[in-house]
Amino acid sequence: MKDMTITNKLLLVVVIPLIFYLLKILSFIFIPLVSSMFIALMFLPLMRRLKRRNVNNTISILIVIGIIILFSFGAFQIVKLSSKEIIANKGAFLMQATTKLDAILVSLKEDYGVTNATDENYVTNLLKSMSSSSGMTATLGKVGGALTSILMIIFFVVLWLAESINVEKVLYDTFLKTKHSSVKTFRRIEKDLIKFIKVKVAMSLFTGIGTGLFCYAFDVSFPIFWGLFAFLINFVQMVGSFIAVAAVSLFATVEMESTNTMLLFFLSVTSVQVLFGSILEPVFMGKSFSINIITVLVMLMLWGYIWGVPGMIMAIPITVFLKIIFEQIPETKIVAAIMSGDDD
User: Fold this and answer.
1) Residue 41: which residues within 8 A CB-CB, separation 6 or more?
2) How far apart are CA 291 and CA 323, in angstroms?
3) Which pTM value belongs to this model?
4) What is d(CA 299, CA 312) in angstroms, rounded to the nearest whole number?
5) Cβ neighbours for 185, distance < 8 A, ≥ 6 positions apart
6) Any residues with CB less than 8 A from the CB of 37 and at least 6 apart, and which?
7) Of 33, 50, 139, 299, which sits 20 to 30 A from 92 (CA to CA)?
8) Residue ranges covered by each domain of the chain
9) CA distance 250 to 265
10) What is the DSSP string of 28-84?
């Protein structure tokens, strides 16, 4: 029996890295699959409500698909509006940016002896490299990959909602060996993750609106784009708020001459992040989502390494999912306690 225990532990040491390796090389499948699971969870209460009203399951799925399409259309219109805003003002902004950045670089050249190989300005050289054919090809490739991922996500959402992929059965066959525990665990996962997603979407939305409004109030170019950027990047836990503030503040320095105005703008966008991200979000999340900061950082780095930006966005929902499962298994309860930072 002792030899069997040692063998099982050694197999576990080998299997876990293999699983993460497969998750990485098959990311084109697992990223849409996992993200679609979280999206499908949001619509499960609606599906049950329609089922109680004797609505056919196929019609219910078509209703959900219609909602997703409408949401996607709205998001596309916002991106389109932001793009028009950038295209309409990019000439004036680039001229202003070129003048200011060249002045800074000339000052560095005079103070520290930094030299340039050509007589052309620095920003022009940068823009030429960005607009090269290879850069355009890479951009088109990313757009094509994004569209493919969206279609795969919609396909997997349909499978989840049609119960072609049954999470309760998976939990029963793998981790939990009783029907009652499987159902109870799935209901808790569903409830907690729906709450997490709703709160995160709401706080990110208000963060984006607040950032966009302050950009508009301080006459910073492309306020719609910056609001959209703050909304999206806020889904990356902890790191996203720093990136949003740093990016929009650096951008604003190009247009603002007064240091006091720049400082006031920085404090304004920072206050938005602090209010919604550090104060209101933890309040609405509640104690059930208390996860150790070290666990959050480790999960962000782990899933960021495996799946890139999508992995960083899904890192916390995945952590919540694993924490709930670990709490149901006696052998892994201590792991769940460490993840949540409990002293019990």
Assistant:
1) 190, 193, 194, 197
2) 9
3) 0.78
4) 8
5) 171, 176, 324, 325, 328
6) 156, 160, 165, 167
7) 139
8) 25-165
9) 11
10) HHHHHHHHHHHHHHHHHHHHHHHHHTT--HHHHHHHHHHHHHHHHHHHHHHHHHHHH
